[in-house]
Design goal:
Elements lengths: L16 E5 L4 E5 L18 H10 L1 E6 L6 E6 L4 H8 L11 H5 L4 H9 L4 H29 L14 E5 L15 E5 H8 L3 E3 L5 E3 L1 H9 L6 H6 L17 H10 L4 H4 L1
Antiparallel strand pairs: 1-2, 2-4, 3-4, 5-6, 7-8
Helix pairs in contact: 2-5, 4-5
The structure holds zinc ion.
The site of zinc ion (ZN) has 8 residues, from β6 and α6.
Amino acid sequence: MTGVAGIPLEPGSRTLLGGWSEEFGAYSFWDPRRHARSRSRSPSLQVTAETLDMAGQAGIATYLRPADLGREVVVALAPASLLWYVEHGLPLHNAEEDALAAGELADATPDEERNFIDDSQTPSQAARRYDLVETMRPYRDARFRRQVLHAYRFRCTVCRYALKLVDAAHIVPVSFPESTDAVTNGLALCRLHHAAYDGGLLGIRSDFSLLINHDVERRLTDLRLSSGLADFKERLPERITPPMSIEARPTPMNLILGLRARRWPTSLIA
Ligand SMILES: [Zn+2]
């Protein structure tokens, strides 16, 4: 940075100020606005090895630079988190008081998120923490999607279609306190089977077998919306194709909770 007369900030574009550490396999970024007019002295852009190490392992880490060096939140990232940072991560540079929580929020459950906001000492801290939670959520979504689609090799676990039509679906829906962003709470589903699963027409039991909800079937018939149903059922395999890696497979408990959350009759769940 020595001898650079500030960072140009172009309206309508996003300016990033960062560096790459080969040793730790991580990027670190500084707030470009704070360095936009650094004329008088060479600004020191530094981050700790510990922060870079944490980012390489956890995907994201923040470091609050002490006041004598110029108070600033430095954001360190693993390569897979880079796009998220470009799209959503810049507000982290404003999260001075809660910057260290960003790493924890990257793994937080909905309950932990709520507690983080509820534990605020003042309304303004609650507002800042709320913003931080909202900033970190797309990070978790992106990571969940990446991990689930990789585990299932970008193919629907029911019909095996890929075609870039595959979503990363939560088994226990995010609105439930038991929901997590672990890959074991995910399924790769094409748009059709995702909607059928969430709508409770199609179920996946804890032994990976598929079943059809006859109550929903009847309701669709009553509404004269059952066109294609016979074909839909005929094309279903007996079981889903789970990920090769056993650690990435849905846990039986998640599959059971997923059916309960979608109001399946208890007799069909176990
Ligand atoms: Zn499918």
